[in-house]
Structures are given as C-alpha cells and as structure tokens.
Amino acid sequence: MIKYDYKIERDEHDVIKTYKPNYYPKELDNLVYIEGRNSTGKSTLLNLIAFGFHGLFKKNLNPILKEKLTNFIKDPDQRYSFNLNITDGDESYIINSEKPNADKEDIIVKKVINGKSNILTPDRIHRDFNLIYDIPDNPTDKLRQLTFDIKDKQTEVAHRIGAFRTYLIDLREEIKKGRDPEEIIKMEEQIKDIELNKYKIDKDLDTKKELYSLFLKYTLFKFFLEYSKQYSEFNNQINSIQKGKIKGRHDDIKYSHELLNINNQIEEKIGFLQFSLNSAISFLKKILPSEYKIKISSLEAIDVHDEINHPEIYNNIDLLSDDCIRLLNGLDNDEPYLNKSKEIQLLNEIIQLLKNYQTIDIIIPGIERNIKEFISILNDRISANKEFIDRQNCYIKAKKCLNDMISTKNELVHTLIPRRKSIVELQRKASQTYLIQDSAKLHDLRKDMKNAFEKRQEYNTRLIRHHLEKSNFDFEISRLSKEILLKPYLNYNETRLNEIITSMDKEIIELEKEKRKYEESGKYFVRELEELKAKKPHKYINYRNIIDNIISDIQKIEAKLNKNYFLNIKNLVDKTIDGNHLLEDQKIYYEAVSIFLAQKVIMIRHGESAYKVNKIDMIKRRVETEGGKIIKFDNLGTGQGQSTYLSGLLSTNDNRKMIVLFDEVAMMDAASLKPIFDRLKSLYKEKKLLCGIVVQKANSEKVESLI
Amino acid sequence: MDPLKQFFIKIFPEKNEKRIISLFIEDLSEEERLEKLIKEYEKESIKQND
After folding, report:
1. Do A171 and B34 lie within an 8 Å CB cutoff?
2. CATH of the domain at A118
3. pTM exceeding the 0.90 threshold for the entire prediction
4. Which of A103, A317, A418, A662 shows its CA 20 to 30 Å from the CA of A14?
5. How far away is chain A from the Cα of B21, in angstroms, using its nearest Cα?
C-alpha cells in the first residue's frame, strides 16, 4: 500500500496557489498504472516518491529528471511538505518518508518494523533499494544507457579486485611475520653463509695485516733512519761551513792588520831607500871626480817604485850601487890618504885616552904642557885636517848609503813585497769563505735539511701512531729484510712502498667494513631467527605459494579491467567505436555486451509480433532475435524502443528491492506496455519490487491496480 | 544466471580468470574469496600433479 499526502504552496506572483492530491486517491496499491490530464499531480507524485527515497543521491539518474527534481526543490517561489508511507507487499515493514517542515530541506526516511523505526541514511537507502525512475524518451539512446550497468559493475569489480589484492599483499606480509619453517631453514643457511664469509675475511685480514705490519715497520724504520741520517749529515755540513765562515772572518781581520803593517813597513823602507839614494847622490857629488858625473846622473834616473815593483825589469839600484862602492873603494885606497887617515885616527884615539885623565894636573914631559892643553893642541891638529876629515866622512857615508840601498831594496823585493802579496792572497781567500763561496751551497743544504727534517718528523709521527718503538733501527731493518714476504719489495723506492702501504691500508679498512657488515647482518639474522622461532605459524602459512599465484593472476585481471575494458565501455557509451577495426578481444567484449543487453531486454515487439532477443548490437545498431531475425534500431517504433529500454531497466539482478517510477510512457501502446506490466507483476510476485507506478498522459484521470 | 555475471565470464573466458572474476561479482568478504580461491587452486594443483 502506498499512502501519501503533500502540500505545495507556489507563488505565481498574482496569487499563491496551494496544490494537494485532489485528483488521485491518497492510498494506492503498490503497483499501479495512472492516467490523467496535464497538471493533475501525476509527476508530482513520482517526484515526491523519488525525493522520499533520496533520489538526488542516485548515480546515473536520468539527467532530465535530475534537473526537474533539482529545480523543484530549489524553486524560490515554492514551499512544500510531504508524507509518504509504503508498506511492503507482505507487510513486514513500512518505509516512512516525510518532509514535515515546508521551510526546511530535511527529509527523514525511516524503516518501521513492528512499530520500531530506524532512520535510513541516503547511502543505506541506495544500498537496500534500487530506485528506477525514468522517462523512456529517445529509446535507442536509452538502450545505450543500459550499458551503464556494465560500466558501474566493471568499476565495482575493479575496486573489489584492487582491495582484495591489497588484502593479499598485507596477508603475505603477515605470513612472513609468522613462524615459517622454510624461512627458518633459509635463515639458518644464511647465517651459515655469513659465518663462512666472516671466517674467510678474518683469514684474509690476518694475512694482510701481517704483511701490512711488516711493510709498515720496514718502510717507517728504513726511511726514519734514512732521513735522520740525511738530516744529521746536512746539519754537519752546514755547521762545518758556518765554522769556516767564522774562521774566514777572523783570518780576514788578521790579514787586514798584517797587510796594514806590511804596507807601513814597505812605505817606510821605500822612504828609507829613496832617502839613501838621495843621500848617496849628495855624498857622491861631493867626493867623486868630475869624470864620474855620469854615474851620478844614472843614480838620479832611478825610480825607486819601478825598482821595487818590477825587479825583473829594473835592477839599477844593485848594479849602480855596486859599481859606485867599487869606485869609492879604489879612490880611498892610495897611501897618502891611508897615512892621513891613520894619523887622524891616532889623534882621535889619543884625545879619547887623554880625556880620561884631563882632570889630573900633570905636565906631560917633552912638550911641557898639561893634559888639557895637550888635548887642545891635538884638536887643533885635527882641525887643521878638517877638509880631509869631511871628505873621509863623505866616503864613509856614501858607501853606507849605497849599501843601505842594496840591502833595503833586497829586503823590499825579496821579503816585504812577497810577504805583502802572500797576505793579500790569504785575505782574499778568507773573505771569499765567508762572503760568497758557500752561500748557495748553504741555501741548498738548509733546504735539503728542512726537507729531511720534515720527512723525519713525518715518519716519526707515523711511528708513534703505529706504536712502533724507535730503537735498534739497523737491527730491525736487517731482520725485516730477511723476511720472505718482503723480499720482492725490498728494491722498491719510498713512493712505491708508501703507495703499497696506503693501498693495503685501504684494503684492510674495506675488509674490516665488510667483516662488520657480516657481523651486523649475522647478529640481525640470529635475532630474527630467534624471533621467528618464537612465533606461531600463520594460518595461511602453507598457502603462501597459492597466494602469490592468486596475486599474480588477479593483477592480470585488474590490468585488463582498468585498461582495456575500461576503454571499451567508455568508447561504447561515448559512441567513439570504429566497428570496422576491432581487435579480437574487443570483438569478444562487444559480443558479450550485445548478449548482456539482450538478456536485460529479453523480449521485443516488432510489428504485430513479439520476439525473444538474442543480441542487441549497439555498434551495428540492430537487434538479433532468437529466430535469426535482424531488426535495425531505425526500424523500431518509438513505443517499441521505449518498451525495450524499460524492459532492460527492469532486468537488474541485484538483491535490492526495486522502486519503479516510469513517467510519460505516452508513446507506448497497450501491446508495448504489456511486457512492462508483465515484468513488474512478476517482480512484485517475486518480492523484488516494493512499489511500481507507471504514468501515462490521457484525457481523463484513471488509476488501475496491476496487482 | 545473472546477465552481468555472464557478461564477465564471457570477457574473461580463460578458466582461471573465469573462476576468479566470478568471486568478485558476488558480494563476498575478502576471507571468503580467499578460502574459495585456495580451494580452487589446490584442486587445480592436485589435478596437475595427477
């Protein structure tokens, strides 16, 4: 039973009009056919039932109806309220839907069972009830809409498969977390492998470390020692040079003094030589006869400096002096001169003797004079020979001067000048020692020493770092040189040896890293194994492989649904299929669609007869009947087309109870309506229909129960 | 048979696909689907071993 009531107030601007159900009974059977004139409330009734079942929340609602419903509720000039009660055919429950307040949009839907009501949400309603509300206009296009079921179902199935795949993947993870005998065996084998690998690395590490240790010791000892020696050697050389420089400086100073001294001596001697020469010339001029004037001229021509500085060229002093001395010796060697000389000598000696006694007052016998008087007489005698005495003095002095010239020149040429040369040379050498000669070498040595020092420090640091004791280097190097492992490398240079050390060091670090990795993963697996052994096995543990296979299989199905089949149905709905270029699987797919539509429609009227439908081919736009008849869509009458479409709509096979509302079936004659009515009756009997209302425009109002 | 179910069976004609897709047309729980599939796969495995 359908009980309903409504009130609609519409502001028609000249008047506010109220509409109520005046033309049709407020109580109807669950399945009715209504005819009536325009504006008698037929469509209003259908709209209210659609509202009552939250029709605007339904997917794929006919767009014309959806717009009509939307306009109805959003019309600002309209206020409405309604109450609807539909009792199920076997009276087991009542659906009560009402909009009690005309100013509020709320629609409350309740399911009442034995007086107890539960509110139904829109979502719940559409889960429990299948609202079919349609206007069968443009029937061939409507047929295409029947494929929406396929589209919706495909989407639903794809979602279900996706959810199931996720469920299986999670399940597989859960199984993994549970106790798994195979996993235990696998893990035990992994642990064994890890242990074995660790053992191999340990062995390898021992060998490499031993070799590394030998290499390191040998290299560090060898080059620490070598650079220590180099450093010491360079240091000694520098010290030695520095000492030499100090001595050189001292020598330089000493030789400067000596040079000054000898220069003074030479100057003095030269002066004396010049003086002797001048004196000799002066004396000789006094005593030499005129025929010897040439000799004096020769003496006057002597250049003392030439004689001294170039004795190999100038030797006049020696020759002329000798010559003059011989000449003088010949001149003072005649008898009268010698006698006179002896006389004066005697007189002088007597005077000297008498002077010792002159204070004694005695008279010398024979001459009768006292001593003083006698001395005076002797002096007078000597004075009488003054000229001779003067000449004799000149002789003596001239000879002395000439001899002095020879000896002085000899001293200068053979002693003082060579000595000065020698001192000059010594001083030059001493100056060079500390000024120029070793500076460059010293610089290089210092550089080398710095380098040796730095290298020594470097090796020292490395020795400390590696805790190697710095003693007995020679012994240790000798011992290490005998090691068989080191033999092939003993001739390697420093760079090569250090390269090998670096490379071995890296290798050891890498191996240790690898060892640590194995240790860590070993610990991890042991821990995991313990945990795994402590776990309970998962209920699906023995079905892991099957689950893996299922995942793999459903992924293939999912891919087909989401890619190929999704496109297939979309193209069909959008009418973008080129029927002449279908792939084999597309042909299969569209064949299945044709059969599906035929199963939905079941029977079709054409002309006077009804036919069982085998296929409805939406691409070729034709119907194939059981007897092999082919009816093109274009040849189907509108009413027949509508009938075919509505039949299709009623062929849903889900478990939801149906609410069927067909409006404006005006194009359909009694023959076309018959299969629809039959189908509705059948659904009602099968308790698959809660209510069904078919509305037709007519010249008068009529309500016909179809139950 | 439900036309939709028939439709899916037709577009997945391969035996294994057919038995899988059938389970997704029906409204079943994941565990029910899994149990059914396990049985099917086990049967298949026994057949293959025989």
Report:
1. yes
2. 3.40.50
3. no
4. A103
5. 8
